[in-house]
Amino acid sequence: MKKSKFILPAVGLLTAGSFAAAISCTPSSKQKEESKEIIIAVDGVQKEFYDEVIKLYEKTESAKKFKIKTFQKDVWGALDINVQGINSKDVADIFYMPADRVTDFTQSKKLAYIEDFIPELFEEVAQKIGATKEEIDLMKQFGTIRGRKDGKSQSKLMAIRHNTEGLILASRLSETEAANELKNASTDTLQELVVQGKALLRFQDFWFGNGVLAGAFEKIRTTSNDETLKKTNLMQRILYTDAKTAKITSGFIKTNQYHDNFKSALKVMAGLFYPIYEAAYLKSESDFSKTVWGQKGITQGDLKEVLSKDVGNAQAKIFSLMTSGKTDYTVIGSWDTQNAEKSAKAQSFFNVVKTDNDNEYLQGPGAWAYGINSRNNGSSPERKQAFKDLFKAMFEVSSYKEYFKKDSKIPFSGKVQQALVDDVRKENETELNLVTEFAKSLGFKDYDALRTDAQTKISEISSLATRGNWGNSWSAENDKTAADAENNQLKAAELKNEIQKPSALSDEEYNGIEVLNILPLRNTVAYILGVSNVDDLVGKLAADATDNQQWLVGNQLLKENALKSEKAAELKEGAIAFHMRKVEKFIFGANGDSGEEKEALIQKLTNALLEDKKAGNSEKINTIKSEVLAKAKEFISEFSKNETTITDENLTRVVDLYLNTYLNPAKVRAAVLGIYENSKYVAGKEATFKEVDEKITQFEKKLTFNKLLKVFSSTQSIAEGGLGVLKAQKTRPDNSNPQFTPVWGFMNDQTFGNAELYKQMAEKKVDSIDKFVDEIANVLSQKFDEVAGKLNVSNSTTSVEF
């Protein structure tokens, strides 16, 4: 499952609302009439998976008593339930969650304790998937939350792990070429690949970057002569309660006993960032042209985008540079494998190599798991049996197969993996015969010959015909005196340069593709709310939250009682703020964190452009623009403190500038779709470019599973001829800490993804890795000191309270 930009870790203190919800779902408040439905939220890519699950469930006796009811919701939206509460019919009975949400939902009492609710469920699921003893231990460890009750330590099983996913090294080179390079002692670490311009990484995203710290911490621990340090998991010291003082603190704080260890680990991490910072921010244009990046045609602007806190944009930039052959490697989530094959021309995949010669890369254990909504506490034995039957259906091979077809989901247990491999292999043999016959009908020797031809002939035009949005459309802070300043806009010329001209397009057709300036989302919303400096466009999840978040619109910017209106329900995140992406959906019709919604809006605009082209006018596009403008006015009237300060002319201008985020790819698609859909791939044959592309894509997608499984099951190093060995931390990075939320932002927005900080460092002549580490360490010390202080004042705890 692709991870959205905003993965919200544990929220923190138990609010009054969640406490009330917790009380309402206890057995004593069980409704007289037990629900005869089990509600499931279905993401678009999960449809076939749940169709299969329901088909299997319908064969059980439970199906006669309890029906499965589904509703459409993306995986993140299904977990966004703070407004409705757990008892709403718009909230599912089972939750599909990443690790951080297991902690969050446990703290806020949204999950049933599985071992109390259905004691035998875990064992029966483990038996169903044929899990080994080691796999059972890993399953239990992943779904278990450590906390306290009545002052005593406790552990509770809160979720059952469903899949395996992780971070892998992707390369645009063939497996043989990449393996030969990675066997070389001068290019067998991430640091060496970065310095030599061969790799670009999005490690400001702490889900990726935490593996660097963990590896450095492990090296410090194992080589220390201090017996206490040898027994200390330093990842658990990122934000923790000191047993001696009973106060919350952090190893990042200068006065903390572990600070020197943390600073040493930061230097390891800086080894991946400082070379990019130096080239992007310190080098003159002339000097940069002589660097490994400049010589490959990478610009300083490109490198600044790679360091952007908008990690989605950073990844898109890296993929673009891989596609154009300017860099060779990056680290991706396994959920992005199919995307990397298409958008980055990735051909080979490996387990992540060492960070540097002295430090391993130890990634956090990745997976999604199923938990049960705590409103089901007190269910009848019959309803509990229905949950058991449903869970078994979700862990069936045929169900996994349907999920994998859409989202690269790999089953957790080796036995199910092998069963799926066998199933896919049989299917692939049939499919190979079909695509081979198709290739021969077009005059090619075999499928491989067609695929090779299509790689150059189709890939460029295919990528344009399915183009998504690109460019940093999240936030710009070049001019803090005016959110809509031209200096904050992404320029059309730079955006156009991102579009490579396909050979199938004439110069005239390519030059006719119009791309327009973009004003990023936060700047747009800031302008609409009358906020000049985007730094002021922030909010908190709750009044007692410890840190402002850039993805929230706080109530301080809204009119009095705005959060109480009916329309506010679809925008709220937490108690006192709107979610920026929900504001985007309210006005523009798509949540930028939802791939499906973005695709739907781009396609809607594409269709409008094509209809207008046929009619010789711009009526359809103007209608959409008018609808968006009306929603912007509605938002201002309903929620903004500054509803009378913006002229219609300026509002139209600003709203159109952000809509270009979606209109630009629509313009690109509309320009090439005619060629893509109608032009014959081979003269005299019926198959079009689109038909050939779809045949190849569908077949290659089925082969991706084997590639991924080879990586995850590899037990040999690359030097030994394998694909490397996955090395991971034993526990999740948050270590069941409900106060972990700010850490993700501190490591990205405030430091390694902070463009403003990089500019300040350049002005201060921070021109060595030691100075760089000092600056980063200073910011982190300040930020962690602030959050620890606030948590201590509010008597918060770093343990989940059962």
UniProtKB/TrEMBL annotation:
**What domain of life does the UniProt record list for this protein's source?**
Bacteria
- Record's protein name: Lipoprotein
Question: What PROSITE patterns does this protein's entry cite?
Answer: PROKAR_LIPOPROTEIN
Could you tell me the keywords of this UniProt record? Lipoprotein, Signal
Extract the signal peptide range.
1-21
